[in-house]
Structures are given as structure tokens and as C-alpha cells.
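SEVERITY: medium
COMPONENT: batch folding queue
REPORTER: lab tech (J.R.)

DESCRIPTION
The queue accepted two submissions in a row. Attaching both inputs and their returned C-alpha cells so the on-call engineer can compare them side by side.

ATTACHMENT 1
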Amino acid sequence: MMETLHVKKQDGIATITLNRPEVHNAISVELVEELHEALRDCGADETVKVLIITGTGKSFVSGGDLNQFIAARGYEQAYPLLSKVGALLSAIDQSTKPVIAMINGAAVGGGCEFAGACHFRFASDKAVFGFVQIGMHITTGWGGGSRLLDILPESKALTLLLTGERLSAEEAKTYGFVDEVYLAAQLEEEVNRFARKIATQPLVGIEAYMRILHWKRAGLPQSERIRKEIDQCAGNWGSEAHVAVVEKFLTKR
């Protein structure tokens, strides 16, 4: 039984709900460990094809748990804490299955870094965003700045990082950080509708396309990625499932 989050699996979709509403789903060491466990479980479960991460209450993720993070003084104490969360966000980023951030509320500071590690970001119209770290005399510390510079054009990413500006969900969409914005009452339904489109597809193809994404993020030259893509497709070609679909198409024709 997990104490900091809930996991529900249904119809190929695993929904992971962060459950620390009393601290606005702040990231604690305990939550990091439980979320790692949930990601490993979902990654190994062949019935799961897509993951959704969301929060309980009015916040998505508020950042690091201040009771743990503010107690750290100096590099020697801060680095291990920051690295733990950085490794978690890398595990999300490098997941073999797509991860959707269902941003139900505030995602400020570390919450923005968390959202940026997911492959899709769908937000409630009540959500608020902001890379506010600069105003606290620090920077993004979980890899969020680096990811933002990959997600957005450099000037847009730097604007958010250097100004610490808070954004509405619609403003975050205008920047390109958020994919879609929905009314709060419709967010869960719309995100699940999108997730089901993925969950109806074969796992072999989903994981293959995630590998293609990871090759790109690893900086492999396009020529190498194309070679690996062809090799990967050839390995799946002629499987029983592939042949069955082709034969069904030919029979209909």
C-alpha cells in the first residue's frame, strides 16, 4: 500500500495520482521512492500502454517538500536531494511508455519541472505555471531548465526562466509548454479520451516509437536513427499479429 500516491490501471491506462494534498503534492523523498516503484511496475506490466500523472486537490505539484528541502544547507546537503528528484524526472522522461501530465492545478517551480519531464501536458483552465526559481536565488535543479530549452525555442524558454513570470494555462499553451487546455470539469474526460487513442494501439509499436524519441534525445545523428528505425521495423515485420492485420485488409479489399 503506497502512502503518497494512488495507482489505477484500466483499459491499458495507468493513472498515477499524487496524494499529498495537505502540502499541495510537494515532492518528498518518500514520494520519489514510491513513484519510482510505480513507474517500474507500469513499465513491466504489458497490459499498461500509457501513463497519466495527476494530483489530488487544487495542485498538480507544488515543488519540493520544504520540510525536507529547506533543511539542506550548501552543496553537500543539497546535491543528493536534488539528484534524487532529477533521477525520478529522468525516469519519467525516458519511460518506455508515453507519460501524460494531467495538470489539474498549480504547477509552479518544481511543478513546472515535473510537467516538463512528461511527454504530453494537458491542463485545467485553472492551472497556473511558472519557473519561479530565479526569484529565490537558485535555478531549476531537477533538469527542468535543460528540458525547457529542448521543448521551446531558446528565446521563449529563456524568457520563462529569466523572468520567473507566472502564466495562466492559456498563456503556457501560447508559449508551447502546454499542449491543450480544458475546463476543469472536463479535464479528466478529455485526457482519458486522448489516452484511450494510444491504449488501443499495439504495445510493440508504442514502445518502438518511444525508442525512436529516445534516440533523438540521446543526440544520435539522423542517419543513425533512420538505420535503427529500419532495423527495428524489420524485426517486427512478418509477426503473426502483423500478418493477421494485412490478411484481414486484403480479404476486405
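ATTACHMENT 2
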Amino acid sequence: MARLARVAATVLASVALTSACGGTPAAPAGPPVASGVAATGADSPSAAPTGAVAAPSPIARSVPVRLLIPSIGVDTPVISLGLAPDGTVQVPPIEANAPAGWYRGSPTPGQTGPSVILAHVTVGRYGDGAFLHLSRLKVGDLVTARLRDGALAVFAVDRVQTVAKAQFPTRAVYGNVNRPELRLITCGGPRDSTGGGYLDNVVVYASLVSSGG
């Protein structure tokens, strides 16, 4: 978990996390500023609400190979992503039927901590991306990660946030948490009038509700 926090600070994961929805990510100019533009809450790691049912136990590490979100029609392969030469998180390829990507500097889905998966909202001339409708998710919607070892990690959406890329909530996305959680990230909001892509990111926060094989 400490390693994840260090990676978050170094990577700045994010300003450019998915700025490549139709383009190539740019290196961030400096640390993101805490966001006040959220559906529920500030730039801080999430925690189980008081009185909530205890979260399921973490599951064994196994990389995700597929992601399913029935409420918005997502059924996509998942590839592994690392860091680009400029220190930002890589993004999935700009191609037809581009897959989602799991950031391998984060826990695998179902492990304690925030597992980070990103995908494009659009893929340039190829049209719609896997996360085209990510912003439509609602609290309670289910997200299932299928893992390489055959296990399933099922998460329920806790909140959905749209935030300017310049104010990306790095701590909330990458900061330590004491239970298995998931972060889904894509581009959103209006397009940059200069042709530089989207101005915002959509971030979905979810927590593990069940697991199985």
C-alpha cells in the first residue's frame, strides 16, 4: 500500500490518465489540485460509511482479464498498463474495439486498496470507446472484474465524479483505503475548442460486494 501511495505521488497519474481519448496524453505540468467538483465528496480516500455492512474479505492477487458493467452495456477485455516514458499512466491503444486497461501499479481487483481501470470514451476515427457511457452509472450499479485465475470480483458503485483534468483528485483515486475498491476512469465533459480532446475526467468509485469463481 505504501508503494501505491509513492507511485501516485510520482506519476501524478493523472492529469493525463485518459486524456488520450482520441489523442496522445501530455505530461502533467505539476501536481493535480484537489477537486471540489464531485458528486459526493472531496479529494480524500473513501471509507466505509458508519453502520455499513462489513465488506467482503480481500481475494488473492490475480490480474483482471475482462470487465463487465451490465447497466451500460460494457463487456470488454482488460489489458495491463504501466507508465509512459514521461511518467504518466499509459492508456489503451487508439484502435477499433480498444480494450480497457488495468494500471499494474495498483492492486488487482479484489485486493485491499484501489484497483484502477481506465478506458476511452471515444477512439478517434474508430468511434465509441468502451467507457462511452461511464458517466451514466448510478450508485448501486454492479461492475464485475473477471480475473486470470477464474475468480470474479463484483463491485457496487459508491459514487460518480466528473472533474476538470487540471483538478484530478489524485489522493481520492490512488490513496490508501482499508478495503478492496475499484476506480474506473475515462474522459468526459466538453471537448477542448482547440482540438485537444476532452476537458474533464469521469471517475467512478466502487467497493467490493462479493467474489466467487
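NOTES FROM REPORTER
The longest helix spans residues 2-11.
No errors were logged for either attachment.
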